[in-house]
Amino acid sequence: MDKESSGRMIEALVKKYDSSFHSEHSEQDTATKFIRPFLESLGWNIADINEFREEFQTSKGILDGVVLLKGKPHIAIEYKGLRHGAASLKVPEERLKTQSKLLEMARDLHCRYALLTRFAQSALYDVESGKELDYFKRPREYQTRFEDIWRYLSKP
What is the pLDDT at residue 89? Predict the structure, then answer.
């Protein structure tokens, strides 16, 4: 996937989000309609088990998704639904709790990045340091700050 095509796909995805009824999307709906297509727009083949796995077991728990680079865990992902997942990213105590668990599982797999997302908001972490690399408050920021998305999450 080239950078320009990726940008166009993300733009289309944001338009799709803007025209949908967010309160009706469960975690699974959010993953199917927004998060997986988002990963695909960044060059990942989510249909290939060597690049993407869901319900991935670690010794610390189960991740919603893991992006694999050359067959090794690269990005640990925790999905939240648009319908009920807002607190996991907006309420500081809930976000910290979810972030801690995500980072614990990501470290267990030796991932480079961890992504906590409900598509409406996303937080990206450096697994080694545990520091937040970026926070996207709304999907439109995937477009306005596309360079950041591309740098961290696109397939090399």
Answer: 61
